[in-house]
Give the backbone structure.
Amino acid sequence: MAKYDSASLRNVVIVGHGGTGKTSLCESFLFLSGKSDRPGRVDEGSSSMDFEPEEQKRHISISTAVNFFEWDKHKINIMDTPGDSNFSFDTKNALRVADCAVVLIDAVSGVEFQTIKNWEYADAFNLPRVIFINRMDRERADFNKSFESINTLLGKKGTPVFLPIGKENALQGVVDLIAMKALIFDDQKGTYQTTDIPAELKEDANRFRESMVEDIAECDENLMEQYLENGELSDDDLKTGLKKGILTGSLYPVLCGSSIRNIGVTPFMDFIVKYLPSPMDRGTVIGKNAAGEAKEERAPEETAPFSALVFKTIADPYAGRLTIFRVYSGTLTSDGNFYNTTRKVSERTGNISYLEGKTQKAAEQLIPGDIAALSKLKDTFTGDTICIEKAPVVFDKIEVPPTIISFAIEPKSRGDEEKIVSSINRLTEEDPTLSFHRDEQTKEMIISGMGQVHIEVNMEKMKRKFGVEVNLKTPRVPYKETIKGKTNVQGRYKKQSGGRGQFGDCWLDIEPLPRGGGFEFVDKIVGGVIPQQYRPAVEKGIIEAMEEGVVAGYPFVDFKVSLVDGSYHTVDSSEMAFKIAGSMGFKKGVMACQPILLEPIVNIEIEIPDEYMGDVIGDLNSRRGRVLGMDSKGANQIVKGQVPLAEILKYAPDLTSMTSGRGTFTYTHSHYEEVPAHLAEKIIAESKKEKEEE
Ligand SMILES: Nc1nc2c(ncn2[C@@H]2O[C@H](COP(=O)(O)OP(=O)(O)OP(=O)(O)O)[C@@H](O)[C@H]2O)c(=O)[nH]1
Ligand SMILES: [Mg+2]
């Protein structure tokens, strides 16, 4: 491999809605640059970028794959991201470390919702972008319509620099509006002939060329002056203006082609080299110092202290952990140490490699801006900043989003519980959006994540990598029980059998506490009607009994018990006897206090485009939810409300179908409320049935 400097490096992330051809475009790059001898096919499971079995089975990408190719004396690092929103965390991390994004749009569907989301993420990083309208060879491909959707749905004016020649099956090539030439592709190998623009496209080409020149001129005052004077720009000015416009985000060039047929791809590779920014063009980045102030500057120079951000981790049960990072400054050699500022630990560097899809290629020394991997690190994970200890810096990482769906998992084989815990820990190393806990109340093992597909994919991975199989179930709702009324009740336990008997007797005042009040016990015994040593036993008895309430066996909360009176026997009384008396008093007493079921209520925030407001609010009402407020965020609306947890266990897929995938939501536990009577009956009946089955 040739040696490169930072100016001849490109870090390109490929994003777009699912199925727009991102992986196929990467395959085309690899094939046309000579890196692979035939283009891998997603549909045949032969793609080197979709190499995980879970990807090959579904024919979608579920994880960012990193590779590189060499083109025209440049090294182009490519990051092929998943289009599915279940795996957005990976996509965001790749956007975070890239120097530019290729945004893919399908020529039939135009801009789709996940493309809008990715566009918004890219906005947050001020990432230069180029748009590629792909799949121009498909039936009903429509360049103009797709181009217009950029304006209407992304709210940005795209600047065409390629126009298609022909479409659908008759797609022949592209008009290059910079050279004002037609590129006709006569085989599937990416080679083309340069000809004059066909007569029937001349008018369009002239019109689009003019608007392209105008857009470029608008990026720079000097260019604008020249343009106004001459009505054109010189070739050099046009090219430097285009590059600058892309870098500053004032211009979004639009190209087109077909990744499967390798049409328009080779000139796109030329375009990447000529016009997309290098790490040098992107310049100095700013990180935080030890005090958390954003003051540490790092330039993409070899002499600068080494700094890099980890944006992905691959956990392989055999090869160990692979930690993938992007260098921001300085270099790293394999024979030293580095410092992890996020976790404040030093680690040995070990082997450095470049990623080539599934495999790696050894790398000796890294240049500023490069993307590479370290193997078998112990303490370094996604989001960590690594650097040299003498020049610490912390770069902002992508925060792990809150999970939105949970399942209870049950091992298929008995005794696999422990293996599940250790396997999931390994999976979460690779994917921190997966989370696991054991519910204290329901005793279930709960796995949570970003969507059903996300959980399913991870359970498949667990089976493949660690040999553990599980069943997924809807998790139980952690209902609780409480009382609405008061009572004064006696708990009396008396047993006489031959020798020493058992005797405990207590009088309890039972009353409700406000929601969230928990349990309170007050000892109001005066004098010695129950000796001091037995009174705590009454409380213990109640605490044990309240674990399983009288309504449907759920834990009892929000009530107060005062021990007000009682009696004892000098021989027969014992702690045990008073414990039983307390428990008996509790059970009898709460039955007389209108016991009820409580259910968890969550705070929910739903982000949706305006047009879905009516549907989403109507649906929330039908789930017994209430809207508490609304807000706007960019072009979207945010609905804030509260809803019973039981009603949103499967909200993620429902919201997706209600909003064509454009809605997102988060929720957090808020408080408990009484379950409406008609629903309580059902819950009680179900719990009874379960008990009988046990
Ligand atoms: N006709 C046509 N089909 C294409 C083209 N590019 C990709 N496809 C097909 O479109 C489907 C999706 O392609 P992928 O490359 O997997 O798309 P992707 O954007 O990587 O999809 P995700 O990874 O799921 O987000 C596959 O069936 C491809 O064969 C193209 O240029 N023309
Ligand atoms: Mg893909």
